[in-house]
Design goal:
single chain; about 300 residues; mainly alpha; MetI-like fold; 2 domains; two-stranded antiparallel ribbon; 16 helices; disordered C terminus
């Protein structure tokens, strides 16, 4: 395949062509070095967490020791403390259950809502989509007080079911707005052709629109899942029992006791949660970016 750069070089004299190659190679080297620098900068918190989780107290609290080196032999005591002195596995299980339920509720509500606002509501759909998105911009610190009264009225205090009920209030608005942009990139003619071939509107949506919209659906799944896992304010306000806590609150409340901070175990708990989420993002990175970028382009 002949690229634009190749065609440009074909019209250059040999000397200018050599200079062009050198400039191109130099630009690529600079680009890769910058990318490597930013990648290393982004990896520093993960490296620091992992190293700290294996450090002893004598090594960690000595100001003369480097935070990225082991002056004393590494230890697994911090992980033992995490799994034996806290309900960490219970926190993880509660978090996964809440996150999966919230994802199911979000997808079930967002896909038909976004499609209806995009295809069926005309000009009103875009305005309603903006109003729905504005709900997402309301700070959680203003909402958790009235929501606490709602949770008390339906008798869901101190239960992770309260989180399953509340979290969709901020995942659905943003995800609806996001999917509306994505559905706008799907040509209407595809559905028309499917209905001409004999499918009903629901059949046309299921067989044409949904398969094309998989990147967008994966985007809202990943967004809802990670946002639910890391949410703190509502989980702290609604749940007090250790058996019902999620990991974001449980680790904080059980590894900070008064003025005593179990830093190594805190870093171990953070690393065990952060690394799988980072791998999840990396695995679905292409589809995740496609869900955001394609949603910004109208078909």
């Amino acid at each position: 395949m002949v690229t634009t750069a190749d065609r440009t070089m074909a019209h250059l004299p040999d000397e200018d062509s050599g200079k062009y190659r050198v400039m191109t190679i130099g630009a690529r080297v600079v680009l890769y070095l910058l990318a490597l620098l930013f990648a290393a900068f982004a990896a520093i918190p993960f490296i620091w967490m992992i190293i700290t989780s294996f450090k002893t107290d004598q090594d960690l609290y000595n100001p003369n020791h480097s935070p990225f080196e082991f002056t004393t032999p590494p230890t697994l005591h911090n992980y033992t403390l995490l799994f034996t002195s806290t309900h960490y596995l219970t926190f993880i299980a509660n978090t996964l259950i809440v996150a999966l339920l919230v994802v199911v509720i979000t997808v079930a509500a967002v896909v038909p809502a976004a499609y209806s606002l995009t295809r069926l509501a005309g000009r009103w759909g875009e305005n309603l989509g903006i109003l729905i998105f504005l709900v997402y911009l309301v700070p959680p610190t203003l909402l958790f007080i009235p929501l606490t009264g709602v949770i008390a009225d339906i008798n869901l205090q101190n239960s992770w079911w309260s989180l399953v009920l509340v979290y969709p209030t901020f995942t659905i608005p943003f995800c609806t707005w996001l999917m509306m942009g994505f559905f706008k990139s799907v040509p209407w003619e595809i559905e028309e052709q499917a209905m001409i071939d004999g499918y009903t509107r629901l059949g046309a949506i299921w067989r044409t629109v949904i398969p094309i919209s998989i990147p967008g659906i994966l985007t809202i799944v990943i967004f809802s899942f990670t946002l639910t896992m890391h949410e703190f304010v509502y989980a702290l306000a609604f749940v007090q029992s250790s058996s019902q806590k999620t990991v974001s609150v449980g680790v904080f409340t059980e590894l900070i006791r008064g003025d005593v901070y179990f830093w190594q175990s805190l870093m171990a708990a953070a690393a065990l949660v952060a690394l799988p989420v980072a791998l999840l993002y990396n695995f679905f990175l292409d589809r995740f970016i496609a869900g955001f970028t394609l949603g910004a382009v109208k078909g």
